[in-house]
Amino acid sequence: MVAFYRHDIPGWMDGTEALGHLEYRAYHVICQLIHLNDGPISFNERGIAGRCNMRLDHFRRALAALVQGGKVRIADGVVFNERCVRGAPGERP
């Protein structure tokens, strides 16, 4: 579990300004969980929706928009985001 990670505030703001409030909340929570897990997280809709404090139908719509927008990917039972990978190029550990 990572205790600290670098956060590119201008990059985050630029990359999330077009998201609606539900998409933004889901994206934020998913990225936080990926950082805490040091990698992809299990695709547990109810668990993630609960962390987002969202109804399941709202979470599913938000997640679908994030996938369609290329913000997150779902494959082999996990949710991931390439930029959340610890030690990404250009990042200091």
UniProtKB/TrEMBL annotation:
Protein name: YdaU family protein
Organism: Xanthobacter aminoxidans
